[in-house]
Specification:
Blueprint: E1 2-5, H1 11-20, E2 26-29, H2 33-44, E3 55-58, E4 69-72, E5 85-88, E6 97-99
Length: 105
């Protein structure tokens, strides 16, 4: 089994699926709604589905703390969609944000 935390569009998820083989499993996490949709599409389009590990996709942010956080996309997110991160509610970041309550379950 392999984990991809912050899977983005699935490049590492896809690589791990191929390395794990059909008896493995890859569990991926991506909280951003639009990027998660792209992740799902990319995983579905892999032509070698029967030769690689299945992927379990979760639209969820992970942290080592419990509570509420802000998912910050930041000011350069449109040109670099790998810059999003979780930040503290106590320190609201500049730029575009999605609050955890705005993310679908």
């Amino acid at each position: 089994m392999a984990l991809d935390i912050g899977a983005n569009i699935g490049q590492m998820t896809s690589l791990m699926r191929h390395l794990a083989g059909p008896n493995g499993q890859v569990i991926s996490f991506e909280p951003h709604p639009d990027i998660f949709n792209e992740l799902q599409d990319n995983i579905r389009m892999d032509p070698d589905q029967h030769l690689i590990a299945p992927a379990v996709l979760n639209q969820l942010a992970l942290s080592d703390h419990s509570g509420t956080a802000i998912f910050e996309t930041g000011e350069i997110f449109q040109s670099n969609r790998g810059t999003a991160r979780l930040t503290s509610v106590d320190k609201p970041p500049p730029g575009t944000t999605l609050r955890s309550a705005d993310l679908p379950p």
